[in-house]
Amino acid sequence: MKKVSKMPLLLYSYLATEMLEPFFASFLIMNCVFFLVRLIPFLNFVLDLNIGLADFTRLISYMFPNIFLYTIPMAAMMGVTIGFARLSSDSEILAFKASGISMYKIIPPVVIVTALIALFTSYCSTRLIPLSEAAMKQLTYQLLKEKINNGIKPHVFTEALGDVVVYVEDVDKKTGRWSKVWVSDMRDGANPTITMASTGKMISSVNNMNVSIILDNGSLHRPDIANAQVVEFDRYQINIPLQPPDSKATRVKQKNVLSQKELLLEAQSIEGDTTHKRKLLIEFHKRLVLPAGCLLMSLLGLPLGLQARPGKKAIGIQAGLGIFIFYYILFTFGKQMAEDGVLPVMVAMWIPNLLFFLLAVFWVYRIANEQPLLPATVSEKGKYYFTLLQNGIKEGFQLFRTKTEEQQQWVPDDRQPKGLLISGNPKKRQFHLPGCKDYRCKSCTLVFKDVKIALDSGFSPCPQCQQRLTRTATTQHSQE
């Protein structure tokens, strides 16, 4: 009878646990950091509208799907990297290989776990984010409208509409209509436009995020020193956009509330290659690109984590963070090219994922065949150029420090400022003035307050400092 190969559930569950523990820890920490960054501008909106605990909790919950889109990929990559770095540093990977478990048997649980995480990221991107953006817009509109409705009272100047001040004589509690209305509009300039009407009412639109004041049987006054105007009307409408106190905290773009199908249909309804059409397609592909990138970066965490060895400093975490930042730099660059029309939207948005897919396949193949991540020639060239860069930076810094010291003016004897002391070399019995190339030599372990004390102690100036002292003495003698 043929033996049926079964999935090693014990191995898979063990590896999944090793990856998920650091994943959830990283996920919690990163969400706290991102939440605090978003919370600071959000508090101005909350405090200005005096939002209750229930509405505050709802607004916060609507923020998290957007945060998850960035924290989940980062946490997934860190989870895989940290999990396999621990297995490798504790020689458990070596024990797996000694037991006949190849790298190709270790890869499937990584793919399964990261694919599930990527699917959840995709659900957040394509479903939760549009729903949360729409709910955020609806709740923000309701809160702003409640503030306006509560602020408009009889015999009270209402300033809840920003630069538009409303005064009403009476409010019908059943119909909500106003009587004897006075409106001051300061949005057009320094001189307010005064509108007076017999009756009026207010209507609102959640889709356009604005309110409209409808006035009947009145007159409009525009005071101006050069040309004042008075216009009588039967019906007049003032449109006022509802803007939160801090628009960055609760800003909702129209394309963000559209589903994937709605984005595609609206883009297809636009003829030509317009900016608005490209933005719709960019949003459509963005919701698919980032979850796919989550999967690819998580797979890259496997070879990075396996670089750890017993007694060897792990570099996988630092390299993982660098790769994560580099991915989003490429993503931003591709998005900008798509917005500018340099490349087709699909090509520009998916280029980073294609590059990282090739890199993931290349690195997984090399670690499966017991090879380093980079070929020997590439690694040697990289180390060579890195050493050249490092030495160039050191030499540049040393040259800058030497030039700075040379620019310092040496003041003799008691006029010398504090901090510019004379350094002495007890081995050669020489002293050096500030700005000398040997001022900071390793053998200069003594300091003197001035030249006189150095000479009295039996030290002589070095040849370079001797020339400086001679020039200084000649200059002082000629001045006398």
UniProtKB/TrEMBL annotation:
One of its GO terms (biological process) is transmembrane transport. Signal peptide: none annotated. It comes from the Bacteria. Keywords: Cell membrane, Membrane, Transmembrane, Transmembrane helix. Its main location: membrane. It is a multi-pass membrane protein. GO terms for cellular component: ATP-binding cassette (ABC) transporter complex. The chain crosses the membrane at residues 23-47, 67-86, 106-129, 288-308, 314-333, 345-365. It is found in: Cell membrane. This is Lipopolysaccharide export system permease protein.
